[in-house]
Amino acid sequence: MLSDTEQKKKLSLTGSVALGTGVMIGAGIFALVGQVAELAGSWVPWAFVAGALVVAFSAYSYVRYSSTNPSSGGIAMILKAAYGPGVVAGSFSLFMYVSMILAESLLARTFGTYLLRPFGMQGSAVWVPVLAVVAIVAATAVNLVGNRWVEGSATATAAIKIVGIGAMAVAGIAATGVSAFSRLVTGGADATPPESGLLGFLAGIALCILAYKGFTTITNQGDHLRDPRRNIARSIVIAIAVCTVLYLLLTVAVTGSLSVPEIVAARDYALAEAAEPLFGSWGVWLTVAVAVVATLSGLVASLFSVSRLYDMLRQMGQVPGLPGSVNRQSLLITAALALVTATVFDLSQIASLGAMLYLSMDIAIHWGMVRRLRDELEFAIWVPAVAIALDVLVLVPFVIMKVRTDLFTVVVTAVVAAVVFASQWVMVRRRGGEADRQSSDGRRSQKR
């Protein structure tokens, strides 16, 4: 049993929710509104609501397993339990890990884009990645200090983000009038339906899911959370609920302020663009301030949680570590990979890569629950079955739309998937060879 001092060092429910929302309320809402508008037109608010519905079904599998078997590598452990410590579990665990690396890159580039918006330099091919690197380095430094600093900063910044985004949304809706809400039903005179109809709307939902998928990082907190069997489920439900309300209010305000073409034209900084006609230059600065806090705190929270996932993968022998006895290896490796992706890919490519990898992993999680864990856990099988159907329903249209408009990103995703599976095949064979050698050495020593 842990002492009171050890218990105090663990994350509280508030700290867990703060870390979860810290990852969720970041680049997701600040960078994705414009990209979703390209696909879903003026149905953006409904796309985010539909995304919350898909995530609600998905969260069930994570809650049921992680509450029963809490650990620092939540997703990796679910996959290991479902498929065994082999190629499949390792590959889809890495899909999740890579998708979270991409999420960190999205946060970092969004930080740079919004910070440069007041100076008209938001499209700079040099300064956006430079500031992205600065953001990742700063977030890594905070994580190196320790858990208490991470939790303390996450709790404080989560409050700032929730209040700031909520205030922006309410003020925006007040400025545009109650007609902003009526447009959810009527569409308004200037409504712009998705160019590709239902296919485009479903593809837009796939991107919206990125704004919620940060809830999965809560499953990585098991060993670091007080009373994880109760608090993991509570934390996930609270985080998703808070984000759903904020996203709905904010997207209603944005679509009430800007037309769809205007949102698409400013897709990487749509929230700042929407604030200007409503509140002038001070509105832009306020949006930038909230975006900076949201993205930096999101990076701190994400690095904390994702490095825990890498820790578990190292313990499982699925990924390598650094040579020698380097401290905090998983954190440093995670930060280094985020630096690379933040400088190589733009926001649209990062979001698309992350969506395809995450949804593929999510399907594997639910399939494992239905086919492999149905006799080991108590859960309603129909829920993960519906989650699989919903994931496929949004993933297939998204891939179709990307093949039409951005084949390069689809090819990169396929290459990444192939490299992950090949590397896991090599790691599993090497691990098996080492086990055989140890067994052989043991038999020889017994004969002597």
TrEMBL record:
Membrane topology: Multi-pass membrane protein
Keywords on record: Membrane, Transmembrane, Transmembrane helix
Residues passing through the membrane, by range: 12-37, 43-63, 83-106, 126-146, 158-178, 198-215, 236-259, 279-310, 379-400, 407-427
Keyword Transferase in record: no
Localization annotation: Membrane
Gene3D superfamilies: Amino acid/polyamine transporter I (1.20.1740.10)
Species name: Rhodococcus indonesiensis
Taxonomy, superkingdom: Bacteria
Protein name, UniProt field: APC family permease
